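queue> pop job 88
queue> type: inverse folding (structure -> sequence)
queue> payload:
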């Protein structure tokens, strides 16, 4: 029996509104009550989620990070951290009240595929390693490929990794984890095969209350078949059944609505977990904390102080191996309409009533619906072409055998968007996304307005203060961090100004490895937390914004501007920014 935590369940308050809010969420969600943990587990070994912290960070100037004595094992420097929080943050794990007899069965549909191997199984193992999975759980891989349990385990074992900071017993944990993984061969549209899966799941569940999570890691044309079979032949008869659906959620408003309608024939909206893995990234999750729990930012968060906001995604590799999928979608659907727009919505939304999923998603929908239709003249598209550097030839997009030679599909796009509401009237929200560029990164850049009548404009010693405005950079990846560019005086007897970074670099501040986005999202789905998943009306609003633009680009057969593989992208992106009186922050000399 697993009867952990009765002593923890009495925690009802926290000094932080965020923590108390979240714990009330946990307490009120029946699915969380169904989680149980191994008996006798040491509190410190518990899933990190049970120790949510709100930590205040100090910043260091430039690269000289402030490192002082750690106040928590996760912190490298911590002059401003709140020690008393430590005890308080041993968050409630609900008294299981008899629910120790519950179990979670996770079925990865499409287990033989790329995403399953690359992300889903490793994330499940990381959750297991952290003690975040309930005591009774089983993982099933499901796909058409013929495989035995041992073959699945062998395949999965090749992709599992240990946390850099926690390698002890990792091998043993892998063995234990793999013993909980099984495989079932079946067609995605066969009720009979899902009935057979159901039978096997029941054997593992051993009469316990059963909760079932299906992760659809398959191409979108078979989503509905699989959902139909899973819901009719393999859903839980005693607990919850949830389905994680991977993007793409359609290609436009019409196909997305059709997909939603079909899914809703078999599932309620609250059973559908539409995943956008960017919402699971640490720095995206931190965006709301930064904004709403620091007095200094929210007052600046409007047209009054912000000149423009930039959402930038770039990859230094092409569509290698995924050209077939990509050519049908293109970069606007692949990155902008979902990942970047979701971040924009979180960035620009009004303060939600609470951290409850519905309150947050209500605000996101509102801001998405306030957006001005995107004009084609505010968009630049590009496609990478082959280039040779240092004797190495890098392929162009259409060199991919799965891509038609005359494809006009954009692998790069930049766009200026506007939110027609009181807070953001006339502020350009620039997006830029591209494959096969010079670097891999994802970031949010907030460029503030100029200081009116800046006294130092006259003797700034060569620095053009009209250019060097303050800029807040939230670097989602790599080298996660947040920094603020400020103007300061160069030390010395003269008066020369310089721009410096107040820098919170996560690797300098925290010793703990940042979890992969899929870990957070899988755990949320198991716990029934919907905050980071896309509700159908959000999806409708996102497609309503991009569908007319995509249609126009495709109908007009707009020719993309070609850019060399490994370059900084089409020059047109600079003209677009200049048209809106903006410079791309990632291309400035002092990034
Ligand atoms: N890979 C990635 O990095 C990302 C993927 N996604 C999304 O996740 C989902 C899975 O992606 P990924 O793993 O790359 O996909 P795969 O193309 O690898 O497909 C997954 C599995 O589905 C089965 N399958 C593939 N094609 C067909 C078909 N035409 N008919 C029936 N079954 C088929 C195969 O299993 P079998 O033959 O054994 O049945 C395959 O192993 C997709 O929706 C994708 O868009 C989203 C973000 C990133
Ligand atoms: O959804 C997608 O995301 C990946 C990039 O994800 P990241 O977490 O590695 O930044 C992208 O390569 C892919 O084209 C897209 O479908």
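queue> result:
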């Amino acid at each position: 029996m697993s009867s952990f935590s009765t002593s923890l369940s009495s925690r009802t308050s926290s000094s932080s509104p965020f923590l108390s809010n979240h714990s009330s969420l946990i307490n009120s969600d029946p699915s969380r009550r169904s989680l149980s943990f191994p008996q006798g587990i040491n509190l410190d070994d518990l899933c990190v989620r049970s120790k949510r912290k709100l930590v205040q960070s100090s910043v260091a100037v430039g690269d000289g990070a402030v490192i002082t004595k750690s106040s928590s094992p996760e912190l490298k420097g911590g002059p401003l951290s709140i020690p008393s929080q430590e005890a308080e943050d041993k968050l409630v794990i609900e008294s299981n009240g008899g629910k120790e007899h519950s179990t979670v069965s996770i079925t990865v549909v499409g287990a033989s595929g790329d995403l399953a191997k690359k992300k889903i199984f490793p994330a499940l193992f990381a959750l297991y390693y952290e003690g975040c999975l309930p005591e009774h759980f089983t993982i099933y891989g499901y796909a058409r490929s013929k495989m035995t349990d041992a073959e699945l385990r062998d395949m999965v074992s090749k992709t599992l990794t240990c946390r850099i900071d926690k390698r002890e017993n990792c091998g043993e944990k892998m063995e234990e984890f793999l013993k909980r993984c099984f495989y079932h061969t079946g067609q995605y549209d066969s009720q009979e095969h899902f009935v057979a899966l159901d039978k096997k799941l029941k054997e593992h569940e051993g009469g316990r209350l059963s909760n079932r999570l299906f992760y659809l890691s398959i191409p979108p044309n078979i989503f509905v078949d699989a959902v139909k079979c899973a819901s009719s032949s393999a859903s839980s008869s005693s607990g919850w059944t949830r389905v994680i659906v991977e993007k793409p959620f359609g290609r436009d408003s019409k196909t997305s609505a059709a997909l939603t309608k079909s899914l809703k024939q078999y599932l309620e909206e609250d059973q559908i977990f539409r995943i956008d893995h960017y919402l699971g990234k640490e720095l995206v999750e931190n965006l709301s904390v930064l904004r709403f729990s620091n007095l200094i930012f929210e007052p600046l968060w409007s047209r009054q102080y912000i000149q423009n906001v930039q959402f930038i995604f770039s990859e230094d590799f092409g569509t290698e191996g995924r050209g077939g999928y990509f050519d049908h979608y293109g970069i606007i659907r692949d990155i902008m309409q979902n990942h970047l727009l979701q971040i924009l919505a979180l960035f620009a939304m009004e303060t939600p009533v609470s951290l409850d999923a519905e309150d947050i998603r209500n605000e996101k929908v509102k801001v998405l619906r306030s957006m001005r239709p995107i004009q084609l003249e505010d968009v630049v598209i590009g496609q990478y072409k082959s280039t040779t550097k240092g004797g190495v030839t890098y392929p162009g997009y259409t060199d991919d055998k799965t891509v038609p030679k005359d494809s006009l599909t954009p692998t790069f796009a930049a766009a200026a968007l506007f939110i027609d509401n009181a807070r953001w009237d006339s502020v350009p929200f620039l997006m830029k996304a591209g494959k096969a560029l010079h670097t891999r990164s994802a970031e949010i850049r907030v460029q503030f307005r100029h200081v009116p009548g800046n006294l130092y404009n006259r003797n700034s010693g060569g620095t053009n203060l009209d250019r060097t405005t303050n800029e807040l950079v939230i670097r989602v990846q790599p080298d996660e961090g947040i920094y603020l560019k400020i103007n300061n005086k160069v030390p010395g007897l003269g008066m020369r100004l310089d721009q410096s970074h107040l820098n919170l670099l996560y690797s300098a501040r925290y010793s703990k490895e940042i979890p992969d986005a899929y870990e957070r999202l899988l755990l949320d789905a198991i716990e029934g937390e919907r905050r980071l998943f896309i509700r159908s009306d959000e999806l409708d609003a996102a497609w309503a914004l991009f569908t007319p633009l995509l249609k126009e680009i495709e109908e007009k057969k707009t020719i993309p501007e070609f850019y060399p593989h490994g370059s900084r992208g089409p020059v047109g992106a600079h003209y677009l920014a200049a048209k809106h009186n903006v410079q791309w922050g990632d291309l400035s000399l002092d990034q």
